[in-house]
Amino acid sequence: MSLITDLIETLAGPWAAMSGLQRTVIACKAFVDGSFLVLPPILFTRQAMTRRSLLAMPILITAYTLSDLAVFFSIAKSADPTQCYIALGLLAYGITFFFWAQYTIKKTTALSAFFSSDAPEKLITTGPWALVRNPNYSAYLATYLAGFILTSSSNHPDHQHPFFTSHAGGITLSSFLVAFTVFYQAIREEEAKFAVSKLRGQYETYKKQVWMLLPLTNVFGR
């Protein structure tokens, strides 16, 4: 019981110091990150999951957790209204593209886990895939980037908090880089599978038209 009381007291201080806008950001980020952590394992096609798929999950969960703790404990002093609105925009992008992607594939095929061993059987180019080749990974990275933006000025001279506050910017940046590394490697391996599949020609054409992680189509000659 004392442990729960101590936890509540630990969280109550930073929460009380937040503005209404900052609390809105925290609530939205908790919802978005919670959706990203809970839903993908349920939606994945488990038959093709590999040991690397299973190893990547705790790495990403740890990165999400550390990033969110850093944001929670530092946002009161590290994030001004501009940073909060940018973060809300990124969170809105992330959750919109994530659920849009799930809606698009619902009647076509199940999601494959990253680093899965299955061969691609269909190329999806509708819905969010018409704007970005990897809408799920793009959505995940958007929330990591939001965390870094919220803590990028966490070296505020008034900060006299423990580890998660004084090092918040470094924690969220490290979390973003770890997630980017995992997702980028997964993307490269998925593209390699398309390159040796019956969908190779279609995918090469699609690849020239749509960007990997940014929602830009036929921009700058692509």
Q: What would a concise description of this structure say?
A:
The protein has 222 residues and is mainly alpha-helical.
Describe, in plain words, how this protein is organized in 3D.
This protein is mostly helical. The chain has helices spanning 2-17, 20-43, 51-78, 81-105, 135-151, 163-166, 168-195, 200-209, and strands spanning 44-45, 111-112. A two-stranded parallel sheet has the order 1-2. Helix 2 (20-43) runs parallel beside helix 4 (81-105) and helix 3 packs parallel to helix 5. It is elongated. One of its GO terms (molecular function) is methyltransferase activity. Pfam families: PEMT. The chain crosses the membrane at residues 54-73, 85-105, 167-187.
Largest sheet, spatial ordering of strands = 1-2
Helix proportion range: 55-70%
Return the average pLDDT rounded to an integer: 82
Number of domains: 1
Encode the helix/strand succession as letters.
Answer: HHEHHEHHHH
CATH topology: Four Helix Bundle (Hemerythrin (Met), subunit A)
- The overall strand count is 2
What is the percentage of strand-forming residues?
A: under 5%
Radius of gyration computed on alpha carbons:
19 Å
Residue ranges: pLDDT <50 for 5 or more in a row? none
Task: Say what oligomer this is.
Answer: single chain
Globular, elongated, flat, extended or rod-shaped: what is the shape?
A: elongated
CATH architecture annotation: Up-down Bundle
Number of helices: 8
Largest sheet: 2 strands, parallel
Helix-strand makeup class: mainly alpha
User: In CATH's first tier, which class applies?
Assistant: Mainly Alpha
Distance between the amino and carboxyl termini: 59 Å
Organism: Testicularia cyperi
Main location: membrane
InterPro entries: Phopholipid_MeTrfase (IPR007318)
Pfam families: PEMT
